[in-house]
């Protein structure tokens, strides 16, 4: 089904061509003065110079040519040369009815050339709990993934664990101090290692910060950790067995926490998975003449003539031969291309890493790791801040664990739900959990990803304003009316609008396809949020203006209920793409 703007444009273009003007002047957009018209065309202003005519004369010609078109209720020329367009109520109703008949996609066509996409988001470190700093990557990435899948792409989500480097050496060193009798530390041990880990997730989460603190004060301790890291990376069996335990225990806990966020990954690969690819990758960079020694380190130049800011060389190996994040990320691209051959790879990470990813992307393209016809995208996000404008912290000033943030918002919602006194404790708790997730996700996703935002629990949990709970409240209102109506005629037709508020709802529904297409193309979930907020507002105005269930004309009542069903379904489809769901009651 063609987007409504495309259908309008085709008619207006035909009008320009019929009057002897180039089709390029028939571009149509939503009106920037909705008080005057629904859509507008400014082509006559641009055509005036080429055709040496007054813009208003051109606009008048085209308006007259389109005057009998049943699509339009109004197509009039306005000084100095605008075409102001309103759609007919009949055309709007027919368009919305066609959307309603497409129960799975509501008129949204899949992309004509679907792509295979890998999306790298999440990025947690093993042996550490998820904290609020992990929130944005997880929920922005999840929404981009869901939207691309809905549009027809094959999408593979990879969590990309931080499971390599000094942090592993620190854990091993501290564990050796605490439990030196473990067989993992016996270099002469030649048997099978235990299948059960020698620590719990709670112990593991306590070991790392303890070890990290010691390494900053004790040089010998840090040296031991660096040695352990080196031995792990060079194949010491006992340490690699410990790494497997660390990964298993951590990943189980991470999956549990991501599940609470309704975030899932297809791959649970980590930095360690890229290590086998590094030697051959580095050797090829040397052999092909891209990598050279600079101040003892191995680097690849990635600056370009058009750069307005300095872009330093991409360092591949440190002077002691150790690999870096750059090395690991490049090697990760090696296996991604070898194993999956995606058309594009999307990275959802903190926007402060933009220069770093510029270096990595350029190096990957220059050295042939990523072919020229493949795309690498950086989706950088801003900081989640507290009301003081600084990065969000606990009351004690520390970084808040993600599960504690979820609990705090759930408790806030539970308190509000219990005030109404309409639910059992069990239903209230389940509903609070659902609504809390909407508050957190919508509160984040409604902001443009690259911008910082203030995390305001009081505002985000409100049932009024541009919030997740307000969107859910609108869906629940639709559900409540439809439940009371009981029998909704699936074959009913949506009639031409009976009021201004109904016409406004029709018009808002027609914008779904364009909103989704734009969110997909720009990897911008905030565009879905902006759309459903406008749709919710349009529906609530219609609801307050209209006696839906009390309507005596049964044909019109059936039309209203069909309209409600479409509104509910589009809102539910949209929030699913954002990564949350609606309860049955609130």
Description:
Among the domains are: 84 residues, Arginyl tRNA synthetase N-terminal domain (Gyrase A, domain 2); 95 residues, no CATH class; 177 residues, Isoleucyl-tRNA Synthetase, Domain 1 (Orthogonal Bundle), CATH 1.10.730.10. The chain has a 4-stranded antiparallel beta sheet. A 4-stranded parallel beta sheet has the order 6-5-10-11, with helices on both faces. The protein has 586 residues and is α/β, with parallel strands linked by helices.
User: What share of residues are in beta strands?
Assistant: 5-15%
Could you say what the CATH topology of the domain at 402-578 is called?
Answer: Isoleucyl-tRNA Synthetase, Domain 1
- Low-pLDDT segments: none
The main sheet orders its strands as 1-2-4-3
Tell me the total number of β-strands.
13
CATH superfamily of the domain at 402-578: Isoleucyl-tRNA Synthetase, Domain 1
Mean pLDDT: 95
């Amino acid at each position: 089904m063609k987007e409504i703007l495309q259908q309008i444009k085709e008619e207006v273009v035909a009008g320009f061509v019929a009057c002897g003007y180039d089709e390029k002047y028939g571009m149509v957009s939503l009106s920037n003065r909705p008080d005057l018209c629904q859509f507008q065309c400014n082509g006559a202003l641009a055509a005036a110079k080429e055709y040496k005519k007054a813009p208003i004369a051109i606009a008048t010609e085209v308006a007259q040519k389109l005057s009998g078109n049943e699509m339009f209720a109004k197509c009039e020329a306005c000084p100095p040369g605008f075409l102001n367009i309103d759609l007919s109520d009949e055309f709007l109703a027919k368009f919305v009815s066609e959307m309603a008949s497409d129960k799975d996609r509501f008129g949204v066509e899949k992309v004509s050339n679907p792509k295979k996409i890998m999306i790298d988001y999440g990025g947690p470190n093993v042996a550490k709990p998820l904290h609020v700093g992990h929130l944005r990557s997880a929920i922005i990435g999840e929404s981009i993934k869901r939207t691309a899948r809905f549009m027809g792409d094959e999408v593979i989500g990879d969590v990309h664990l931080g499971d390599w480097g000094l942090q592993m050496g620190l854990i091993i060193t501290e564990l050796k101090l605490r439990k030196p009798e473990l067989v993992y530390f016996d270099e002469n041990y030649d048997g099978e290692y235990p299948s059960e880990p020698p620590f719990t997730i709670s112990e593991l989460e306590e070991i790392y910060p303890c070890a990290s603190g010691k390494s900053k004060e004790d040089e010998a301790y840090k040296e031991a950790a660096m040695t352990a890291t080196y031995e792990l990376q060079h194949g010491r069996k006992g340490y690699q067995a410990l790494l497997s335990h660390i990964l298993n225990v951590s990943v189980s806990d991470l999956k549990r926490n991501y599940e609470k966020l309704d975030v899932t990954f297809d791959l649970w690969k980590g930095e360690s998975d890229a290590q086998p690819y590094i030697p051959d990758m580095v050797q090829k960079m040397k052999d092909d003449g891209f990598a050279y020694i600079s101040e003892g380190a191995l680097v690849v130049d990635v600056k370009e003539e058009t750069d307005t800011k300095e872009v330093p060389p991409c360092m591949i190996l440190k002077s002691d031969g150790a690999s870096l994040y750059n090395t690991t990320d490049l090697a990760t691209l090696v296996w991604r291309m070898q194993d999956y051959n995606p058309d594009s790879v999307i990275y959802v990470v903190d926007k402060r890493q933009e220069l770093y990813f510029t270096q990595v992307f350029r190096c990957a393209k220059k050295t042939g790791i990523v072919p020229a016809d493949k795309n690498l995208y950086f989706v950088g996000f801003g900081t989640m801040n507290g009301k003081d404008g600084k990065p969000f912290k606990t009351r004690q000033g520390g970084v808040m664990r993600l599960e504690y943030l979820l609990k705090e918002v759930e408790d806030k919602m539970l308190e509000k739900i219990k005030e109404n006194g309409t639910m059992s404790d069990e239903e209230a708790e389940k509903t609070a959990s659902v609504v809390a997730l909407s508050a957190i996700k919508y509160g984040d996703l409604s902001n443009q990803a690259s911008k910082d935002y203030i995390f305001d629990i009081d505002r985000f949990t409100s049932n009024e304003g541009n919030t997740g709970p307000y969107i859910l409240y609108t869906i629940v209102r639709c559900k409540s009316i439809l439940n009371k109506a009981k029998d909704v005629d699936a074959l009913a037709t949506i009639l031409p609008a009976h009021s201004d508020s109904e016409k406004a709802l029709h018009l808002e529904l027609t914008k779904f396809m364009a909103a989704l297409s734009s969110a997909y193309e720009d990897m911008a979930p905030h565009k879905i949020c902006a759309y459903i907020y406008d749709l919710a507002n349009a529906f609530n105005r219609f609801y307050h203006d209209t006696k839906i269930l009390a309507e005596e004309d049964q044909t019109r009542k059936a039309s209203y209920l069909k309209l409600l069903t479409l509104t509910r379904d589009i809102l539910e489809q949209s929030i699913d793409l954002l990564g949350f769901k609606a309860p049955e009651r609130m």
